[in-house]
Design goal:
Layout: E1 2-5, E2 8-15, E3 18-21, E4 24-26, E5 28-34, E6 37-42, E7 45-55, E8 60-65, E9 68-75, H1 77-84, H2 90-95, E10 97-99, E11 104-109, E12 116-117, E13 122-128, E14 131-136, E15 141-146, E16 153-154, E17 159-163
Antiparallel strand pairs: 1-2, 1-9, 2-3, 3-4, 5-6, 6-7, 7-8, 8-9, 10-17, 11-13, 11-16, 12-15, 13-14, 15-17
Length: 164
């Protein structure tokens, strides 16, 4: 898993004796948990980690470590795989369009033209590489135009939905 804290990205693996961060074992010990507060010991020093916000869709966690607030952005191996296949939504968000992340077939449309949608709403079901992928909206907005229909075959980067 990768964790981005500020401008720095760290590779993290969970081990039986703690964590491995950027290839080095870190002897992190969980002392106790009370609600959203976690108490850890790291090399003889105690830390209070409070979860302030957690967004499961974006995998962003806002935490306070001993009162200091910071944001952690997580990426697991599946996020890395989706990004390498073009399935992440960064490009779509900027352009106001949903493009086909890879060649496939539209199995089901879950939205319609003129519909007001929210970020994270499911828009369509795309079969690609023998897997069914739910394509979700990267933004809040209005669906201006749908360029595909159920059972259509799509090519990578083909515009499927446009926001207005």
């Amino acid at each position: 898993m990768k964790a981005k804290i500020g401008d720095k990205e760290h590779h993290i693996e969970q081990k039986t004796d703690g964590l491995k961060v950027n290839g080095q074992v870190v002897p992190l010990e969980l002392l106790s948990k009370e609600g959203d507060n976690y108490y850890y010991n790291l090399r003889g020093r105690n830390y209070k980690v409070e979860i302030v916000e957690c967004d499961a869709d974006t995998k962003e966690i806002v935490v306070k470590v001993n009162g200091k607030k910071t944001t952690v952005k997580l990426r697991d191996r599946y996020d890395e795989l989706l990004a390498s296949m073009g399935l992440d939504t960064k490009a779509n968000k900027k352009q106001g369009q949903i493009k086909a992340p890879m060649p496939g077939m539209v199995l089901k449309l879950l939205a319609q033209e003129g519909q007001q949608i929210a970020k994270g709403d499911s828009l369509l079901l795309l079969e690609a590489m023998k897997m069914e992928n739910i394509i979700k909206s990267p933004v809040d907005g209005l669906i201006k135009k749908i360029y595909i229909a159920e059972k259509d075959k799509v090519e990578k980067n083909q515009v499927m939905i446009e926001f207005g």
